[in-house]
């Protein structure tokens, strides 16, 4: 099986989704969690010994991380579908890469690897695709300069970025200016090679997979809850020991079939083995507030993370107001939540979405555009998104959506077209491969009508 990332080379792949005449039905699994998959490969590369990973997401973003870890000297091998092993060099012993590291479309890969490289005495250059090269990197390079690493990038700190790591990193005490698990993780990863304690204060709690995995590999990490936020402390220079990892299904990917089921009348689907880390489940809370028929069965802990099976049935939805404090726990789910809101009764407001402007695309603008080109009434007010729902009546559809190299915009638009009056077309579905390989096939298996445009 060829696992090299491809999006950069492939021609645009337009797709159309058409309103079906039959409900969606079935029992499925979604691919492994992207955040946990990146971290599993990185921690495996930083640890002593052999880490075995089950359920790894084989999406292009994660394959970029696998390639980068190989270029830094780790032995990364696929044993079977979702089964990978990584033999690490031991903390602090990564090698200088011989060529530029291409992180493709992945912000998580680029920012976390900056943290890893910053505290190794090596030189490296990072680049990415057109989307990633437009995304801000100063949010990691500014604090990481404080440990003694040096960075030179394009205007605004954008990729390509040259990094000169330091052999003697100073431990940081840093308060995050934005709620970002990527920035928190970059600082903690850099702190692994610093003598003493690295402290990251986050004003809003963000996903804690890095903290969980640090402990799983033997590091000492403490977390103190402070209001909506947390203070994370890492003791530097731990021995990281290889540990097996079981990756749960990605709740951010599950969001797409979930919303599809909710908006296609008569549908009922079960999604098995979805990660339910409480810092990732803001969408489920919000959908329950909208009156969605969404229940969790068989809740259990697997590989240190809570997981469960989701049972979803179509039904009427009410408008919702999502508070700013909930944004980090569902930051990637707003485009598809906006699709659900388009079918609800009443006007929904999602507050405080400024971070959506710096994702793979400006998702605030792209989400509003994907709705309005399909006849949904929507406004952006400051950093809020306001959506006037149709009250269950199918919105017009018939639009061609620009996806701007953004997988989540592409999948959200395709979900919308399953419930609109006329089909919805996306200009390029190729980027769906970054996080959700075989998305269209999985949806077709449930009865969705998705075809090449
Ligand atoms: O740490 C992570 O794995 C991620 C953090 C989030 O980004 P920010 O840290 O920029 O909010 C999220 O949008 C991204 O998909 C994955
Ligand atoms: C924002 C995302 O990913 P990243 O920042 O890793 O590119 C995402 O997957 O929605």
UniProtKB/TrEMBL annotation:
GO BP term, pick one: aromatic amino acid family biosynthetic process
InterPro entries: Enolpyruvate_Tfrase_dom, Enolpyruvate_Tfrase_sf, EPSP_synthase, EPSP_synthase_CS, RNA3'P_cycl/enolpyr_Trfase_a/b
Chief subcellular location: cytoplasm
Spans annotated as Disordered: 1-26
Transmembrane intervals: none
Binding-site list for 3-phosphoshikimate: 34-35, 39, 180, 182, 332, 359
EC number: 2.5.1.19
Function, in words: Catalyzes the transfer of the enolpyruvyl moiety of phosphoenolpyruvate (PEP) to the 5-hydroxyl of shikimate-3-phosphate (S3P) to produce enolpyruvyl shikimate-3-phosphate and inorganic phosphate.
Name under which the protein is recorded: 3-phosphoshikimate 1-carboxyvinyltransferase
Organism of derivation: Acidisoma cellulosilyticum
Gene designation per UniProt: aroA
């Amino acid at each position: 099986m060829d696992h090299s990332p491809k999006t950069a080379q492939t021609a645009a792949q337009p797709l159309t989704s058409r309103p079906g005449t039959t409900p969606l039905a079935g029992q499925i699994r979604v691919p492994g969690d992207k955040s946990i998959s990146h971290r599993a490969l990185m921690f495996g590369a930083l640890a002593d010994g052999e880490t075995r990973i089950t359920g790894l997401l084989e999406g292009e973003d994660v394959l970029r991380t696998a390639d980068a870890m190989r270029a830094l000297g780790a032995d990364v091998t696929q044993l079977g579908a979702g089964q990978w092993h990584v033999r690490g060099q031991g903390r602090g012993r990564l090698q200088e890469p011989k060529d530029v590291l291409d992180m493709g479309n992945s912000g998580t890969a680029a920012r976390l690897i900056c943290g890893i490289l910053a505290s190794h005495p090596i030189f490296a250059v990072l680049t990415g695709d057109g989307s990633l090269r437009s995304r801000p990197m100063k949010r990691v390079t500014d604090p990481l300069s404080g440990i003694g690493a040096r960075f030179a990038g394009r205007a605004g700190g954008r990729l390509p970025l040259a990094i000169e790591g330091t052999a003697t990193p100073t431990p940081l005490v840093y308060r995050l200016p934005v709620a970002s698990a990527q920035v928190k993780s970059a600082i903690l990863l850099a702190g692994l090679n610093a003598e003493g304690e690295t402290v990251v204060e986050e004003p809003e709690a963000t996903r804690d997979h890095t903290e969980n995995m640090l402990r799983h590999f033997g590091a000492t990490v403490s977390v103190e809850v402070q209001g909506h936020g947390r203070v994370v402390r890492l003791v530097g220079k731990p021995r990281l020991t290889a540990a097996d990892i079981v990756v749960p299904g990605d709740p951010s990917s599950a969001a797409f079939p979930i919303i599809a089921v909710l908006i296609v009348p008569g549908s009922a689907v079960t999604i098995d083995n979805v990660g339910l880390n409480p810092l990732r489940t803001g969408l489920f809370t919000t959908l329950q507030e909208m009156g969605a028929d969404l229940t969790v069965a068989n809740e259990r802990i697997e590989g240190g993370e809570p997981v469960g099976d989701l049972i979803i049935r179509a039904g009427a939805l009410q408008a919702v107001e999502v508070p700013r404090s909930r944004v980090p726990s569902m930051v990637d789910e707003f485009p598809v939540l906006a699709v659900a809101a388009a079918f609800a009764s009443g006007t929904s407001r999602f507050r405080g979405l400024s971070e959506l402007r710096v994702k793979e695309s400006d998702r605030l603008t792209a989400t509003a555009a994907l709705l309005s080109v399909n006849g949904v009434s929507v406004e952006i007010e400051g950093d809020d998104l306001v959506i006037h729902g149709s009250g269950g009546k199918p919105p017009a559809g018939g639009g061609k959506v620009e996806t701007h190299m953004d997988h989540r915009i592409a999948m959200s638009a395709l979900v919308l077209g399953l419930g609109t009056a006329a089909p919805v077309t996306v200009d390029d579905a190729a980027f769906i491969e970054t996080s959700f390989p075989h998305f269209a096939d999985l949806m077709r298996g449930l009865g969705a009508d998705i075809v090449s445009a």
